[in-house]
Amino acid sequence: MTSVTPTSTAMPTEGQHGLKAHSDGDWDRTVPVQTRSERFRSVNVADFPEVDGKEHVWKLSPVATFADLTNGEISGAVPTLELHEADGVDVSWIARDDERIGAAGIPEERASANAWSSFEQALLISVTGEDEKVAGVTRTGLGTAPRAAHTVIEAAPNSRGLVVLRGTGEARLTENVEILVGEGANLTVVSLQEWAEDGVHLASHFARIGRDAKLKHIVVSLGGKVVRVNPSTHLAEQGADIEALGLYFADAGQHLEQQVYVNHDAPHTRSRVTYKGALQGAGARSVWIGDVLIGNAAVGTDSYEQNRNLVLTDGTRADSVPNLEIETGDIEGAGHASATGRFDDEQLFYLQSRGIPEDEARRLVVRGFLMEIVQKIGDAELEERLVAALEAELAGER
Amino acid sequence: MSTLEIKNLHVNVETDQGTREILRGVDLVINEGEIHAVMGPNGSGKSTLAYTIAGHPKYAVVQGEILLDGENVLEMSVDERARAGLFLAMQYPVEIPGVTNTNFLRTAKTAISGEAPGIRQWTKDVKSAMDDLRMDASFAARNVNEGFSGGEKKRNEILQLELLKPQFAVLDETDSGLDVDALKIVSEGVNRAHSNTGLGVLLITHYTRILRYIKPDYVHVFVAGRVAEQGGPELAERLEEEGYDRYVTEAASAE
């Protein structure tokens, strides 16, 4: 055995070897990062300070373009809706004091709280019955004055169905959408943003998924100047399952954002988060933040989240931030991935070497990249319409 | 008669260490219906030749010509070359997520023949070509090369060769990584295309194994970026016995 002479472990004094106090951290003077589940929440807008853009949840958003929605007074009057009806899906208005309101979650930021404080009646979409069905609500012509909305989508135990919440035309909208998935139910919710060029839409979705129930939640953002749809999912009971999918195509000057949160809060819950986006044109911007929390109770969790961005031109910016927080070691698996890349030239070469002209080859590859999400929607008619919308995006027609 | 001519071809490639000269004056003439095997040790520039013919942007032609029936191939884009009748079966075909094989094949066929193929005949052609290559019908609906094994990717290359019907095909180490059954199936496909359409073939390989199934008319030994020796099929037999050592030593002492 050899003896080791102890050496001094004292830090060199400042200035030696270029050593300086490091600049990150500074923990004495900053608020420590909290666990996601402990974030401040309130239904009352006055409980949140005015938004200035420095807040954690707002720092990547163009807050000046929608100060009216975060800080101003907004109308909570009910809009006219276009309904796409189906047997087993009922649409009605319910009062603010209905017990379902607040059952899935409550606001974590001021735009969401402002909507909550302002809406007059909530839209209830209730799904019952075990047959497959597709229903939808389209909001159109909401105008240019700021508005608030509240929607509750409720799937009865063991029910099945697909609900599309679509927005077109002018809008300055902040809203909350609550999704209650009963025991054993299998629900798909598609939030489809096809707003007019200067539309602004801030949305918080709160889903609570019951025992052995499954939610497929799909956010498709194509039109609008600023679109921010933040889905939070509470896997509240054993065997709950969320498949969170997203698809966005940011053009010049467009800001498309999504902050996705999955809270594993019961044993044997499963989550799959897959968001894919393309960016094209100067100032095209996307933000994706994916928070996954695997709580103490969530033994046997199986979780994976990923974000992929395809950059088609110069002058774009894609932020992609996956966060994973694990409080129990007894899980099946948890992973995350994020990749933002330019067009793959080898794919282009392969297609061109088969005689396909460059522009057509590009369209095929981008379409292929985004189709992975479209193919998972599970409704042929909607899938076809989205393919056509994506073709128009690629051709620069919108 | 169709002819593919390669004259005094010099090709550079940019690497992290700077510009490297890979091809140093290659001359080859392939006539319609002929099968030429290009054999050589690793790093001799065989794949560079294949990709340069197809027009991969990574390879810069600094001197020489490639002519297809007298037309200057080097002035054509990658897709123009394919439409002019050239085909490259790649060693490592890329995966294209979200694009089904069916969609891809029909798009390529339409681009090459200038009009969409009649749906009934085309469906029949695809099915029969897939049957010939013992490809399961499910490959049509799967995304291009996605999750395919090495052997399945090679079969998919030959499927395209048979359906797109080029005048000249460059097969870049199509045999590598194939077991003997897959090798036979792939070779049969190349032989079918050869006898059905009078295809000219430039068969690039490291091994003589594939030459048992695809009989070359000419064999060229490629060393250090140029043709070191050429002859008939007997040259391949000699290579099988002696290997490349003789050429490599000669090339090294010549430098």
UniProtKB/TrEMBL annotation, chain A:
GO terms for biological process: iron-sulfur cluster assembly. It comes from the Bacteria. Residues 1-28 are annotated as: Disordered. Residues 1-11 have a biased composition (Polar residues). Residues 148-369 form the SUF system FeS cluster assembly SufBD core domain. Belongs to the iron-sulfur cluster assembly SufBD family. This is Fe-S cluster assembly protein SufD.
From TrEMBL, chain B:
The gene is sufC. Belongs to the ABC transporter superfamily. Ycf16 family. This is Fe-S cluster assembly ATPase SufC. The keyword Translocase does not apply. It comes from Agromyces seonyuensis. SMART domains: AAA (SM00382). InterPro entries: AAA+_ATPase, ABC_transporter-like_ATP-bd, FeS-cluster_ATPase_SufC, P-loop_NTPase. The keyword Ribosomal protein does not apply. GO terms for molecular function: ATP binding; ATP hydrolysis activity. Residues 4-249 form the ABC transporter domain. Pfam families: ABC_tran.
